[in-house]
Amino acid sequence: MMSKNYFSINFAFWFNASYICIKLFIMKRFIIISVLFLSFTMVYGVNPAKEYRYTPSDYKMVYNQHSILTSDGYKLNAWSFPQKDTTADVALIAYGDAGNMGEWLGMAYLLNSMGMEVWMFDYRGFGHSDEFATQRSVLVYDEFYNDFESVVKYVYNQNNRPIILCGISMGTILVNRLLKQGDYSDMVKACILDGFYYRRKFDDKQAE
After folding, report:
1. How far apart are CA 171 and CA 195, in angstroms?
2. Is the dihedral of CA 63, 194, 48, 177 positive or negative?
3. Residue 89, domain member (yes or no)
4. Domain annotation covers residue 2
5. What is the arithmetic mean of pLDDT over 135-145?
6. Inside any domain, residue 47
7. What domain count does the chain have?
8. Phi, psi at residue 127, to the nearest 5°?
9. What separation in angstroms does the CA of 133 have from each of 20, 46, 65, 130?
10. Letter string b/e over residues 165-174, b meaning 16 or more CB atoms within 10 A of that residue's CB
């Protein structure tokens, strides 16, 4: 009998192809989805890490540190990787439900090397953001949406340029909710979404 009752469909991410698609279709505000292969994986829920295995110094990246205050008073740790060109595209990475942003520095490095200004942040309870109690049985907390919305507004206000949202795994849920619950057409230029969740509940008989 399966102890977990959720499955996900996980799509791999092809950064180079995605960026080319963005450049081709950016003016039409398309949502860009790049797919390499399809796999079924179990969803085990939120599993944050407080310590960074990797930092921008490991990649020799120039960066700025930010403390972003959410609407309910939590402080989120964030990094930005600037470009000399002040008109460069701005990308914001919203990663999945495990680890912290340090584990996604490879993605930030790649996008930054392509000429994009890149931002990334830790949800509450992750990395060096404020403490927040989580459970492995929970896939996503409503508070994470609050975090994401606060970061989107902060990044936009810092640059006054629309943002390319890069949602990964749990991050795709947050991007999807953001676009459904408000008009962010001025703030969002395009989206790259990797790892959509398809959730199906199983009762005990089906799971056996």
Report:
1. 9
2. positive
3. yes
4. no
5. 91
6. no
7. 1
8. 50, -135
9. 39, 10, 24, 10
10. bbbbbbbbbb
Q: Is 197 left (phi over 0), alpha (psi -120 to 50) or beta?
A: beta
Of the two residues 108 and 198, the one the predictor is more confident about is 108
In single-letter form, the type of residue at position 57 comes to S
pLDDT, residue 35, reads 38
Q: What is the mean pLDDT of the segment spanning 153-162?
A: 96
Alpha helices in the chain, H assignment, sequence order: 15-25, 105-113, 142-159, 170-181, 204-207
129: amino acid identity, one letter = S
**100 inside domain:** yes
DSSP 139-155: S--HHHHHHHHHHHHHH
Express as a percent the part of the chain with pLDDT over 90.
Answer: 64
Cα-based distances in Å from 92 to 5, 100, 117, 120, 139: 31, 15, 9, 6, 21
Per-residue model confidence (pLDDT) at position 138 = 87
Whole-number Å distance between alpha carbons of 18 and 31: 10
CA 77 to chain centre: 14
Q: How confident is the model over 114-132, as pLDDT tens digits?
A: 999 999 999 999 999 999 9
- 12 pLDDT more than 80: no
Range of the domain at 169: 7-42+54-207
Cα three-residue angle 125-127-129, rounded to 5 degrees: 60
Q: Using CA atoms, how far apart are residues 134 and 48, in angstroms rounded to an integer?
A: 8
Task: Work out the pLDDT band at 107, boundaries 50, 70, 90.
Answer: very high
d(CA 101, CA 121): 6
